[in-house]
Amino acid sequence: QVQLVESGGGLVQPGGSLRLSCAASGSSFSFRTMGWYRQAPEKQRELVAQIRAGGNTVHADSVKGRFTISRDNAKNTLYLQMHSLKPEDTAVYYCNLVQLWGSTYWGQGTQVTVSS
To answer: What is the mean pLDDT of residues 76-99?
Structure first.
């Protein structure tokens, strides 16, 4: 079993920055991918960024150059550093982990609101 707990969301003005954290516990070391997804009201959940077990990262075109995904293996924590935030980045952000054998886990989500 894996537990994922996100933190770091909040209200920020356009152009501001936030860092999201996702603390993983349980059998999380045997992961295939870890990532951040987001879901805005009345929209489908979408991939924001993903990191693979080998360290390769993928970022959605909409956040390239502004967001950076990283992982601290010692702390078993996933991060999403977000800069130059825009109102369209407003969403609930979810942490995701896919284990080597395909089991998938989600965190409870953290709200990010970008507004003046």
So the answer is: 97
